[in-house]
Amino acid sequence: MTLKRAAVQTKGAAAYSALREAILDGRFAPGSRLTGQTLADELGMSLTPVREALRLLATQGLVEHDPHRGTRVAPLAPESIEETYRLRRVLEPMACELAAQHATADDLAEIEAAMSAFASAVDDKRHDDLPELNAILHHRIYAAAQSPLLLEFIDRLWLRIPFQAMSLVRHQEQKTAEHQAVVTAIVGRRRKAAGRAMLQHITNSTQATLARAKAMEGGSDQEVS
């Protein structure tokens, strides 16, 4: 296991970024034990920033600490995933409707550029780029709603999305079409259509993510070393 950290960040932020990335891309499987000193050695830093990073990850539900069993990557609990997606189905269509109403010309240009970047990555089979480009596209859309509080709620909710259980590689053409339907509706100022398109997109992802999460639970006692 090799962890990477960005030199420009503080040590605590670098440890957090590296550990979160390792959890979300599946290098640290759900249920894996995390040993602070081992992680510190791999990151080339002291134990203090690693502990700070683990505490922050715990507040986001990505790791959990038990006095007897130590710190582990949080299991992909179906009930937690269902709750996360249930809230997504409420807040994100709402943001799309508001974006269709309030987006500026610059917002629309950024949304279309993000859509183009995602579609190009799909066409070029740049699978490793899809998660980041997907997040950028969604964030551009929600920021265009011109509702800072709603954007804050959605950003916090996205911290709990089990990205390690999502697959942006499978059914790529369908996902691109779903994204494009949202973008087209927003650019066309069709509020209800934008909300419906996002609702359909998230609904389609829910069962696939749940099924993948359950399949990943097999390695729940793996130890990170």
Shape: elongated
Helix content range = 55-70%
Number of helices: 9
Mean pLDDT level: 87
Order of helices and strands: HEHHEEHHHHHH
Radius of gyration: 19 Å
Distance between the termini: 7 Å
Across the major sheet, the strand order is 1-3-2
Main beta-sheet annotation: 3 strands, antiparallel
* Count of beta strands: 3
Which percent range describes the beta-strand content? under 5%
Low-confidence stretches: 219-225
Q: Decide which structural class fits the backbone.
A: mainly alpha
Would you give an account of this structure?
With 225 residues, the protein is mainly alpha-helical. The chain is built from 9 helices and 3 strands; from the N terminus they run αβααββαααααα. It has helices at 11-24, 36-43, 47-59, 78-102, 105-123, 130-143, 148-158, 172-187, 191-216, and strands at residues 33-34, 63-66, 70-73. It has a 3-stranded antiparallel β-sheet. α1 (11-24) packs across α3 (47-59), α2 (36-43) crosses α3 and α8 (172-187) packs antiparallel against α9. It is elongated and about 55 Å long.
